[in-house]
From TrEMBL:
Residues annotated as domain DUF2726: 21-129
InterPro entries in the cross-refs: DUF2726
Source lineage: Bacteria, Pseudomonadati, Pseudomonadota, Betaproteobacteria, Burkholderiales
Species of the source: Undibacterium parvum
Protein name in the entry: DUF2726 domain-containing protein
């Protein structure tokens, strides 16, 4: 008897139909991203709360700060083969204004996450995407065993957080300098014999990653010669050192161009 009553009172399920995940223009842009970043994972419509978390130790404060992230999303999040976050991409309308509220970019900057912003009308061309994302396009392709072990570890084990060199660099100085830097093609011309690329691919990848931001590249190249890991480094062979120093010299040229020129006045005679 009761079961019949329960069945009668059970709310009816409305009719639904499948919805396309991407709009036509989104599908076009996603295809361009996939071609530009064949070795990366690209996740669309990612919530900020999935990419960052409050650092406050107060539970009440943490909940309040998480509430600020509620409903906020980035259009695309780009991850490397080990599911390490590389950058996020946001598409915005030209007329869009965020003056009245805190923008996503401010939260991303606070978390030290590199963000790239493009106008969605018109969408960036394939060439524009390739030029901007060139450092990421040369990263190693994902390996199923690495990706799987990463997912398992993050799902079941609360592992201590260790920041990658890339994350450390961007978190220490996330503000872009807006200085034109080296391209991957230019770096390859500076190291035509490929000693560094072949023998130290992980170093090469990071050099390519930092190439578009000269100040970060300068710090990273300098760090290669520092004994700061608690164990003595073996050091690089002479031919690799030459390639690194050649890249250093060319990168320094971009930084010097960006520096304000000193006055041509002789300050000795000022206020006399």
């Amino acid at each position: 008897m009761f079961s019949r009553l329960l069945k009668k009172n059970k709310p009816s399920i409305p009719n639904y139909e499948e919805k396309r995940f991407f709009r036509h223009e989104d599908e076009i842009f996603y295809g361009r991203l996939r071609r530009a970043l064949p070795n990366c994972y690209i996740f669309p419509k990612v919530e900020l709360s999935a990419l960052m978390e409050p650092v406050s130790m107060s539970e009440k404060q943490r909940l309040a700060e998480l509430e600020q992230l509620k409903g906020r999303k980035v259009d695309y999040a780009i991850f490397d083969a080990s599911l390490g976050l590389l950058c996020v991409i946001e598409l915005s309308a030209q007329a869009e204004s965020e003056d009245s509220q805190v923008s996503n970019s401010e939260y991303l900057k606070s978390a030290g996450i590199k963000s790239i912003r493009w106008n969605q009308n018109p969408l960036p061309s394939s060439d524009q995407i390739l030029r901007t994302l060139a450092p990421f396009s040369s990263l190693a392709s994902p390996k199923p065993d690495i990706a799987a072990s990463t997912v398992i570890k993050t799902s079941y084990v609360e592992a201590p957080k260790t920041l990658d060199t890339v994350q450390v660099m961007y978190q220490s100085d996330p503000e872009p300098s807006n200085i034109m830097g080296l391209t991957v093609a230019a770096i390859e011309r500076l190291a035509p014999n490929g000693h560094l690329k072949t023998r130290y691919p992980h170093v090469w990848q990071r050099i390519c990653l930092f190439s578009t931001e000269p100040k970060h590249l300068k710090k990273y190249l300098a760090s290669l010669f520092l004994q700061d890991r608690g164990v003595e480094r073996a050091g690089f062979p002479a031919e690799v050192i030459k390639e690194i120093t050649d890249i250093q010299g060319e990168n320094e040229r971009f930084l010097q161009v960006s520096m304000p020129r000193g006055t041509t006045w002789d300050t000795t005679f000022i206020n006399r």
